[in-house]
Amino acid sequence: MSLFATRGLTVRFGGLTAVDHVDAGVDEGETLGLIGPNGSGKTTFFNAVTGLVPAEGDVAFRGGALRGLEPHAICRRGIARTFQASRLCLGLSVFDNVLIGMHTHVVSGVWDALFRRKRMISEVRDGLKQAAHLLGLFNPDLIDRGFDPVGALPQIDRRRVEICRALAARPRLLLLDEPSAGMNPEETGELMKDLQIVREEMPGLSIIIIEHDMFVIEGVSQRVVAFNYGRKIAEGTFADVARNEEVRDAYLGRGSTPEGAPRA
Amino acid sequence: MGGLIGVWAVELGLFVLVVAALLAERPIAVGLTVAAIALLLVAVQTSVRVWGWMATSFRTHRAAALGGAATLALALPFFLRASPYWTFVATMALLYVTIGQGLNLQMGTAGVINLAGAAFAGLGGYTVGLLTVRLGFAPWLAFAIGPLVAMVVGALLFIPILKVRGHYLALVTIAFGFIFNILMNNLEFTGGPQGIKNIPTLRLFGHAFTTAPTLFGVTLPSHANFYYAALAMAALVTWLAWRLYNSWVGLTLNTLRDDEIAAKCSGVSVTRHKLLAFSIGNLFVGLAGGFYAVMVGFVSPPDFDFGYSLVMLSVIILGGLDSIPGVVLGACLLIPLPERFRMLHEYRLLLYGAAIVLMLLFRPRGLWPAGVRRYGLGRPAGSFGAAGTRAEGVGVSR
Predict the structure, then answer these.
(1) What is d(CA A101, CA A229) in angstroms, rounded to the nearest whole number?
(2) Which residues does chain A have within 8 Å of residue B271's beta carbon, measured at their own beta carbons?
(3) Tens digits of per-residue pLDDT, B25-76?
């Protein structure tokens, strides 16, 4: 049984159907690549799954239904995500940005913050240790810069911090929305290594990754789903999808040859 | 050691200048002392070296710095004893510290705009007045209920606030401030424009706050009672605010302020945390309002009009949004200064407005900007980047 599956997921913005009856799923420990031209509904699919936009259809996750839940409740069930345009708090420290990811697991509240300081501090220490561990997986320098504002970091490190924030929630399903956006080829290569590290360190974690860089998709995903105009047009291994005529048409226009495989 | 003496020297120097500025009688002396304070501030603000030295010394000698500041704050009434008026002004500054911490929690930390600070202070003040004068409650009891009323009314106002954001949120709170004022002006039982008179004062161990206290053989003006009580209140509220800021709660509220969507997707319930910040903030503001009522013994609508909401806003912008020490600095500068220049009183709001614009242009993060949150752990112990020591690494000194 799959960990996560949508059935007939549909998002409408007025007359526009951004996501059109999509059935898609992912198994435990599997990485699914999500591709499609700009505007094909990939990010909207993520937004619908995480509860940021209202949707019709069913979303099943770990045997329960997610539809109608608020974003914070969906996170609590075990789905964490990153965003295409970075959504870090640039003025807050690197550690703070990762610590907020642990929000759903934090037990100390206002009372502990005010009057049971020991309990609160010991939880902060544990959180800092976890944060340092996560950051250290990607780039040990980030631990030394843990109390620097995130805004002082280069693009690739910001992306890593954002992935760490998502991982800090200890999710079962991780949604990565175009992690290589705005990166040069060298940084994209590093990012791929980072994603491999995530897969090795957390073998049970399922990942859905949106990417335009087909090297990344080919390198990290076991299965690929292609979108066009909000509909799922193909599904299968990377090679299958790359050969699919409808996918080629979507990317390259009608009548393209197999040599002109989708490359970005 | 040099740092320690430096910290105390800075504090003592500033204290001497401030007392001199307040007590100076000849205009030239006033001008000179105020200019010296301004020069000091500008030097600290513009020179990276001076600012760096101040920041490190105050952080490394935090306990000594706090002790020094506390000693000077306790000693202040002795130096101002010739002037009940300045003791009163100093007390008002402390009330603004209390109010500022509340508003800062809302606007600085959580990003929930509240332009009705004066109305929430008024709720505290009027509650104390009505309960004691009309219903005969004991002053301490009324004083304790006042802030709770401010908090509960704030929570009710929060229902419409949740449906709006940004500028509309500002408008809702402004409207609330005006509604409060109009109601107080027109309702029979609040005394209308006459307000509520003869609010009984507080007593502590049989000592009424209106009798002049004698400490160490020195008789101080009766306002010194309120000064010390307000000092205790401001210290308590600042301490609580500091603890909230340096905790998961502060972090959650900051994230909510910076990026609501990211916060939601990290599992933060927006409603719950905004309501939390708004309620605790109004509790502090209402507390100061109730204190004002028992101190002055009289509340009326003009004491809580919109202009004062703007003064409160100026305090936290001047000090630095989201900065706990910034609030203290902002209140201590912005409240006494205009009193010193009474001749400019007509232009007070204009000057506040100019101060805000100048701050936003040149020092958008305030005079004492918020630093990185360290959860009260002190400085992290050296190199926890080195492989192998990572896990213990974040084991922090102390």
Answers:
(1) 33
(2) none
(3) 788 888 888 888 888 888 887 888 888 888 888 888 888 999 999 999 999 9
Contact A97, B252 (CB under 8 A): no
ipTM confidence:
0.91
Residues B33 and B108 in one domain: no
Of residues B244, B267, B390, nearest to A169 (C-beta)? B267
Nearest to B158 by CA among B98, B106, B122: B106
Sign of the alpha-carbon torsion through A136, A141, A142, A146: positive
- Are A88 and B254 inside 8 Å of each other by CB? no
Among A160, A216, A178, A153, residue whose Cα is nearest residue A84: A178
A117 Cβ neighbours under 8 A, 6+ residues apart: B243, B376
All CATH 3.40.50.300 domain ranges of chain A, comma separated, are 1-78+171-257
A72:B244 CB<8 A: no
Q: What is the Cα–Cα distance from B109 to B143, expressed in whole angstroms?
A: 27
Query: What's B35-62 look like in SS3?
Result: HHHHHHHHHHHHCHHHHHHHHHHHHHCH
Q: How many CB atoms lie within 10 A of CB A86?
A: 17
pLDDT for res B110: 94
Would you state the pLDDT for residue B351?
80
Closest CA to A165 of A101, A103, A106: A101
Domain assignment present for B384 = no
Domain spanning A1-78+171-257 has what CATH number?
3.40.50.300
**Structural domain of B32:** 1-79
Q: What b/e readout covers A156-173, taking b as 16+ CB neighbours within 10 angstroms?
A: bbbbbbbbbbbbbbebbb
Q: Which of A52, A72, A118, A161 to mutate to test the interface with B (most CBs of B within 10 A)?
A: A72
Name the token pair of A182: 């705005």
- Whether residues B48 and B98 share a domain: the answer is no
* pLDDT tops 60 at residue B388: no
- In chain B, DSSP assigns E strands to 203-204, 207-208, 214-215, 218-219
pTM score of the predicted model:
0.91
Does A129 contact B394 at a Cβ distance shorter than 8 Å? yes
Residue of B382 and B179 predicted with greater confidence:
B179
H or E stretch including A80? strand A79-81
Spatial separation of the C-alpha atoms in residues B274 and B117, rounded to whole Å:
16
**Distances in whole angstroms, Cα of residue A231 to Cα of each of A15, A66, B58, B281, B395:** 16, 21, 60, 48, 51
- Interface contact A75-B265, CB threshold 8 A: yes
Q: Residues with Cβ < 8 Å from B157, sequence gap 6 or more? A: B172, B173, B176
Nearest residue to B7 (alpha-carbon basis) of B83, B62, B72, B73: B62
What DSSP character marks residue A139? Answer: -
Is the distance from CB of B290 to CB of B178 less than 8 angstroms? no
Question: Looking at the partner chain, which of B252, B261, B269 has a beta carbon nearest the beta carbon of A100?
Answer: B252
Q: Where are the beta strands (DSSP E) in A168-228?
A: 173-177, 206-210, 223-228
Residue B312 domain-assigned (yes or no): yes
Distance CA A118, CA A109 (A): 12
**Residues A158, A160: Cα–Cα separation, whole Å:** 5
- Residue B181 sits in the same domain as residue B224: yes
